Amino acid sequence: MISHDGIVTKRIVMLGGGTGGTLSANRLRRIYPREDIEIVVVDQNDDHVYQPGLLFVPFGLAHSEEIIRSRRHQLHKDIEFRQVSIERVDLDADIVHLGDGTELGYDVLVIATGSILVEDETEGLTGPGWMEKVFTFYDVAGAAALHDALEVFDGGRLVVNVVDMPIKCPVAPLEFCFLADWFFQQVGIRERVELTYVTPLDGAFTKPVASQRLAGLLEEKGVALVTEFNTGEVDGPGGRLVSYDQREVGFDLAVVVPLHGGASYVARSPGLGDELGFVSVDEHTLQSAAKPNVFAIGDAAGIPTSKAGSVTHFEGEVLVENIRRFLADEPLDGSYDGHANCFIETGFGKALLIDFNYDTEPLPGHFPASVGLPLLKESRLNHLGKLMFQSLYWHSLLPGRDLPGVGSAMPARGKDIEGAR
Amino acid sequence: MPIATYAGMAVTINDEGFFEDPGQWTEAMAPEIARAQGIDELTEPHWQVIKFMRTEFAEKGTGPTVRVLGKTSGVSVKELYQLFPKGPAKMAAKIAGIPKPRGCI
Q1: Per the domain annotation, does A130 fall within a domain?
Q2: Residue A287: what are its φ and ψ, rounded to 5°?
Q3: I need a labelling partner for A178 at 20 to 30 A (CA). Which of A230, A287, A324, A343 fits?
Q4: Does a structural domain hold residue A366?
C-alpha cells in the first residue's frame, strides 16, 4: 500500500480489540516503526471487558463497571482504533467491508473477534423465564442480573448447565459451582440449596486427571454431577432442562452457559470460517488455511485448545513472530504448543491452578518450576494469584509485556509426570 | 486390540468398539453394527447420516460433533437423536466405521 506522501507502507488490520487483538497490536507496534507499518484495530464498541471477572459478579465479589475499560485506551497511541461493525471480509481482494459502508484494505489480517453467545440455538433458553429464573453469567448484563437473583434466592434447586462445547473458559462453570457452595454457606442457607452441575461431557472436565480431581471437589462440596446431558430445551416456566434423549433435570434457578459461535461476519465471509463461525487456522502457526496473509488468535480460532485468555496470551507471542516472518518472506516456524494455564477458584479464598498443552494434560506439581504455585491442588496462593492477575492483565499482558517466568511454551519442569496416575 | 466380526469379516476395534482402521469398513457391515447398538433397521435417513460421517472423516480426519452434524448433514439435532438415541455423533461414527469424533476441549 502507498500512503499519501508516496512512501510504501503496509497495513496490518486486527478485527477485534479484545485480549488477542490488543496484545498483538501492541506487540507489533513495538517491533515496527509507524512509518513502515500502519496498524488498525476495528471493534464495534469501546468496552473491553476483563472476562475472568464475570465469574465474580454474581456473588458480589466484583461489580460490572470495575471490569470494563475503554478498548482504545489499552492500545498504543500509534495504533488507529476504528469503532465500527464488520460486514464481511473479502479474502480474494484483501479487503474488509465495514458496517458504515467503507472498505479497509490490508496486507495482513488478524481475526481476533472472539466468540459470541448463541442463546437462540437452544430451544426455550431465551423464552419465558429468561433473566428471571434462567440466567447466564457469560456476559455483563447476565452476570449483573444473576447477582440480583442470588441476593433474593432463599433456597431450592440451582443447576449449572453447559449446553455444549466449545465454551470460553471451560472451568468457569465448575468455579461457579464451587463459589455458589461458598456463597450459600456465607448467607447461611446452604442446607436449603441443592446444587447440580449438568454437563454434556462424560466427566467433570475434558482431561482425565483434572476431571477426576474436579469431580472429587464437586463431591466434597456437595454438588451433584449429571454427565452426558445434551440440553435440547430449557423450559423456564416448568423449571426443567430437557435433554435430546428426553432426560430431565428440574430447577428453581438455572445458570446456563449458552452455545458459542464465531462472530457473525465470519459466516458472511466465504472461505473464512467453519460451520460454527470459527476461523480454521494451523494449530501451531495460527495461519489461515484459506489465505496466507490471514491469521486468527484467541477464541476466534478454530483450534483444539481451550477458549481462554491464557491461551490467547501465549498465542500472541507466536502470532506476532509469524506475522513478522510472513512480511519478511521468511518461512513461518513460530510454533504454538497449545499451552493453557487456568486458575480455578474453589471458594473460601482458595484456588487450583492447571497448566497444560496439546500433548500434556493438566498434571500435579508446581508452576512454573518445582518452586512455584501448586498445580491441581487447592491453595490460598493460587487464589491470590488469580486476584493479582487482574492488575497484570491491564498493565502487563495487554500492553504486550512479557510476564516474568511465564513464557509461551508450556514448562515441563515442576510437573509430576510420573506420579500423575 | 479386540477383533470383531461383521458381515463375515474380522475387523480391529478399540475398547469402546470404534474401528481402528476405517478402511476395513464396508456398507454390508453397518446393519450388524447398528443392531448391536439397538437400531433394528437402518432407514434412509440413517444412511444419509452414515454416508455424511464417512465423507466428513475422509475430508477432515475426524467425524463431526452433534452440533456440526445438525448444521451440515441436512438432519436436525432433534431428528438425529431420534435416529441414534444413544448419542448421534458417537453412534453414527461407530456404525460408519470411523474413530470416535474428537470432542472439543
Answers
A1: yes
A2: -90, 140
A3: A230
A4: yes
pLDDT score of A417? 74
Q: Nearest-CA distance from A4 to chain B in Å?
A: 45
Could you tell me the CATH number of the domain that includes residue A277?
3.50.50.60
**Residues A219, A101 share a domain:** no
A277–chain B Cβ distance below 8 A for any pair: no
Report how many domains make up chain A. Answer: 3
Q: Name the residue range of residue B53's domain.
A: 3-95
Interface check for A275 against chain B (CB to CB < 8 A): the answer is yes
> Which of A164, A207, A304 is opposite residue B102, by nearest beta carbon?
A304
Whether residue A33 is preceded by a cis peptide bond, meaning omega within 30 degrees of 0, is no
Length of chain A: 421
Phi, psi of A324 (to 5 degrees): -60, -45
Q: How many angstroms away from the CA of B25 is the closest CA of chain A?
A: 27
CA distance A244 to B37: 18
CA–chain centroid gap for A144, Å, is 19
Catalytic residue positions of B?
104
pLDDT tens column, A176-211: 999 999 999 999 999 999 999 999 998 999 888 899
Per-residue pLDDT tens, chain B, 105 aa: give them: 789 999 999 999 998 899 999 999 999 999 999 999 999 999 999 999 999 999 999 988 888 888 999 999 889 999 999 999 888 989 999 999 999 887 644
